[in-house]
Amino acid sequence: MSSNPSFFDYPVPREGPAAPYKNETQSIPVFRGIPLAIGATVIHNVGFIQSHFWRNAGFDVIREIPYLHQYAARHDPTVIPIDHAHRDGSAPTAASVERRKGNSGYYTSADYRAMYESGELTPTAVVETLLPLSQADAIRAAADASTQRYKQGKPLGPLDGVPVAVKDEVHLTGYKRTVGTKLDFSGGINATSWCVKQWEDAGAIVIGKSTMHELGLDTNNNNPNYGTPRNPHNQDYYCGGSSGGSGYAVGAGLVPIALGADGGGSIRIPSSFCGIWGLKTSHSRVSGAPTLSLAASVGVYGPMAASIDDLALAYRIMATPAPATQDPVSSQFPHPVPPPADTKRSKTIGIVRDWLDRAEPPVRKVLDAALDHYRQQGYTVIDIAIPYLPEGQRAHTLTIMAEIASGVDERQIRQLTAPNKVMVSLGMYQINAQDLLASQRLRNLLMTHLAHLFQTHPGLLIVSPTTPIPGWHIDGGKADLSHGLSDGKATVRNMEYVWLANFTGCPAINCPAGYASDSGVPIGVMAMGEWGTEEDLIAFARDGESILDRTEEGSTSQGLRIPAAKDALWEDIIALAQKHSE
After folding, report:
1. Which residues form the Amidase domain (predicted)?
2. What is the pLDDT of residues 421-459, one digit of tens each?
3. Among 227, 314, 408, 579, which lies 20 to 30 A Cα-Cα from 43?
4. Helices 389-406, 418-429: inter-axial angle, 10-degree rounding
5. Angle at the Cα of 262 from the Cα atoms of 208 and 25, rounded to 5 degrees
6. Among residues 79, 61, 62, 80, which one has the least CA distance to residue 71?
């Protein structure tokens, strides 16, 4: 029962035990190539070897946490804001989107719309440019319909005709739902997920599904099944995962907006490595249920975009609550309505210093510069404490593995790539009820402690790097891309900050804040807010947008810069479409 009248199922605010932060980088061997293939088969089939790897991972520390028995297990982190003023079904106010900022900036949805309205370009020309070899008749039909609406001066709104991509974790009419595997997890459904349907109803053109890490079970987006997109800023690095395909589509300029999904990992990592904004919504707020089915989604959905304006626009459209007949949980959320322009909000940033000290020097340098920028914007930075962060990360991982394993059977494990044969086998055969329940008790402990922090410091945003590493290098080159990779140490490091928002159901936003000097790979800063504070996070991102403003060689550039290195990957879709239409 909620202890806060503004929410349903809000955690009872309760300060957690005093537990000094203590963490160590885990020593986990890296497997690749033939040893990975052989080892995965052995681990999948030999129980005592599974047990050895499980014990070495240290998951047994969760059940040993003192006083954990005082907390009930909480299996669902959904907390629903109550806003009676906006439950009348009225459409949310569309975000105002600015056009591209100079020749080094990304195109936005406003660029597409302006050119459609002027007749310089048509949605049909854009789609033909993006899909020159495709026979995707439904996509072309959507583009032709949008083209006709613009000719008649009756576009559906700011997203009409704008190309978007969606992660293969959602359902999409005419497509299998493979979740990055060679299997079909469509469940007999040939319908479009609610959140994607909202974009389509607004006129957006879904050009297709983007690749993802198989089952979303790692954070580099290495996928031998369908290919691994390389980082647009540096092809020797991964985009990040598991939504790396969507991150690449936006970062490389193919589309201004894409859908990520948080099916256990986090959608913040690719937007960090690809240098774009990404919003993780409150758990269960955005419905992934297909329009014709009650089938549940497996995680949390959120938009990625190359501009904050587009991020806000995409979020407010896709977060329209689903009807109760399709998704009874999403239907309880209020419409995503931006606050009035004159609304005063708290500007308090909380940091856990020992936790932040884990970041590598280039990342910490970017974070410190970002914090200085926010201080200049009137923010107060305070020290906070959150107990059991390393143990919480293990509990989060254990929970993901259990959830994924519960949806896969023995025959399907054999058809997975080698790294996931290991992960799913461990999840299926090594997790016991005591470990799983202890993890859910720890989830409740963390949620009640966060509620205590949010009640003590209204408007608090908890800020950290998005990931402690300045990009993930493809160490094995083409061989790793062909055969897959198991690097548990890098995986754990990469998730060190983002797991908390996922595990506790809080919304979070990734804000590009700098670039690694040696590789040019973007570095992101993440803010996590109280349940239901997506609009506060968007405002936070706006306050930090000028971090990326710079002056070099006598010229000034604002905001994000498109990939511009010698071997960078960026497509000027509008220029190509204009040429195509000549």
Report:
1. 135-537
2. 988 998 899 999 999 999 999 999 999 999 999 999 999
3. 227
4. 100
5. 125
6. 62
Angle at 220 between CA 216 and CA 222, to 5 degrees: 80
C-alpha to C-alpha distance for 568 and 25, rounded to whole angstroms: 32
Quote the CA–CA distance of 160 and 398 in Å, as a whole number.
42
CA distance linking residue 345 with residue 320, whole number of Å: 24
Structure tokens at 29: 């061997």
Tokens of 214: 């198989």
Token output for 234? 């540096």
pTM of the model: 0.94
pLDDT band for 137, please (50, 70, 90 cuts). Answer: confident
CB 8 within 8 A of CB 374: no
Whether the pLDDT of residue 294 is over 70: the answer is no
Q: What is the CA radius of gyration of the chain?
A: 23
What counts of helices (H) and strands (E) characterise the chain?
20, 16
Annotate 327-385 with three-state secondary structure.
Answer: CCCHHHCCCCCCCCCCCCCCCEEEECHHHHCCCCHHHHHHHHHHHHHHHHCCCEEEECC
Distance, CA of 179 to CA of 577 (rounded, Å): 31
For residues 367 and 525, the answer to whether their CB atoms sit within 8 Å is yes
**What's the rounded Cα separation, in Å, for the pair 506 and 508?**
7
> Exposed e or buried b for every residue in 304-324, given b needs 16+ CB within 10 A?
bbbbbbbbbbbbbbbbbbbee
Query: What distance in Å separates the CA atoms of residue 288 and residue 322, rounded to the nearest whole number?
Result: 9
Give the C-alpha separation, 353 to 343, whole Å: 31
CA–CA distance, 235 with 481 (Å, rounded to integer) = 12
- DSSP single-letter state for residue 565: S
254 CB-near residues (< 8 Å, 6+ apart): 130, 163, 165, 207, 248, 571, 573
The per-residue pLDDT for range 517-537, each reduced to its tens digit, is 999 999 999 999 999 999 999
- Partners of residue 301 on adjacent β-strands: 261
CB 425 within 8 A of CB 473: no
What do you get for the CA distance between the two ends of the chain, in Å?
A: 62
What pLDDT was estimated at residue 299?
A: 59
Nearest-angstrom CA–CA distance, 474 and 230:
9
Side-chain half-sphere CA neighbours of 520 within 13 A: 16
Q: How far is CA 567 from each of CA 230, 231, 256, rounded to the nearest angstrom? A: 11, 10, 21
401 near 431, Cβ under 8 Å? Answer: yes
